[in-house]
Design goal:
single chain; 214 residues; mainly alpha; two-stranded antiparallel ribbon; 7% strand
């Protein structure tokens, strides 16, 4: 234990520090509980989004196979080249219980037949179905990516909060309690020593007074 001043003022200061550290630990525990609750909610969303993505990907592969079987591989490739375009995505931060989490803002990828860029009259309906299926898959990818990024941030904050709780609970608070107890013990010993000296002085004075009276 490092050198501690054994005074009444220092004892009061240690008691105040213990109360403050205990309050801080309780607040952090409440925050961690809320973060874990949010983590579980987002984890459920990630699991659901993963299932949705798998289903969308499977449907996209089936739709592509149908389009190639009906319209031919070259027609599908030609339509795919014609429908290329940019995907505008904006990522901003939102505050969730003190944690900055990403929010992906984007227009839905799904487009109308006219907006895809290829000739309607020159393509099979199966190509339209394949295009719609792949657009739905991309939508699912983006939505899942946002949830996974949010889950990662929450997990990181839970770990950081847990480290702070553990530091308070297992390091700082025990040290402050040990210092408080050390100061209290030193003050009690000093008080007993002062009391013993006072009694000894009192007996000496009473003895002197008795000798003078005789």
């Amino acid at each position: 234990m490092h050198k501690v001043s054994t005074t009444r003022m220092e004892l009061l200061a240690k008691k105040a520090q213990i109360a403050l550290a205990t309050q801080g630990r309780e607040l952090l525990e409440e925050k961690r509980t809320a973060l874990v609750r949010e983590f579980m909610r987002v984890a459920d969303r990630v699991l659901a989004g993963s299932d949705t993505l798998q289903n969308a990907a499977a449907e996209a592969r089936r739709a592509l196979a149908r389009a190639e079987a009906v319209a031919g591989t070259e027609a599908v490739r030609s339509a795919a080249m014609a429908t290329r375009g940019e995907l505008a995505i904006e990522v901003r931060a939102a505050n969730v219980m003190g944690v900055n989490v990403p929010v992906i803002e984007q227009k839905r990828v799904t487009r109308s037949v006219l907006a895809r860029g290829y000739s309607i009259s020159g393509t099979s309906v199966t190509i339209d179905e394949a295009a719609a299926a792949f657009e739905a898959e991309v939508d699912s990818v983006i939505q899942l990516a946002e949830s996974e990024l949010r889950l990662t941030r929450l997990a990181s904050e839970i770990q950081r909060t847990s480290r702070r709780v553990n530091a308070l609970e297992h390091v700082l608070i025990p040290r402050l309690i040990a210092e408080r107890d050390y100061i209290q013990m030193a003050l009690d010993e000093r008080e007993r020593a002062d009391h013993f000296r006072l009694k000894r002085v009192k007996r000496a004075l009473e003895r002197d007074a008795g000798q003078k009276a005789s």
